[in-house]
Amino acid sequence: MEITDIRIRKVEKEGKMKAVVSITIEDEFVVHDIKVIEGEKGLFIAMPSRKAADGEYRDIAHPINSRTREGLQNMILTKYQELIEANE
Length: 88
Prior knowledge:
Layout: E1 3-10, E2 17-25, E3 29-39, E4 42-46, E5 49-51, E6 57-59, H1 66-86
Antiparallel strand pairs: 1-2, 2-3, 3-4, 5-6
Family: Belongs to the SpoVG family.
Keywords: Cell cycle, Cell division, Septation
Protein name: Putative septation protein SpoVG
């Protein structure tokens, strides 16, 4: 699987959510609403989710294994850092 595009929209409001991301996979499939979140241990990504009837949030789309999640997170956070540094 090749991520062929990463588009980042920085969130201007103060808070834990820093950006909203869309990724394109192999120029054929797009996943919107991946969030860049500032947590206690640093930045991480949260996959698109929706609130279920029981009040819990469930991911709509997500990587199947931790290796893929880590790779995706590293690509997105690298691109986010480049955006931040370019705007300083």
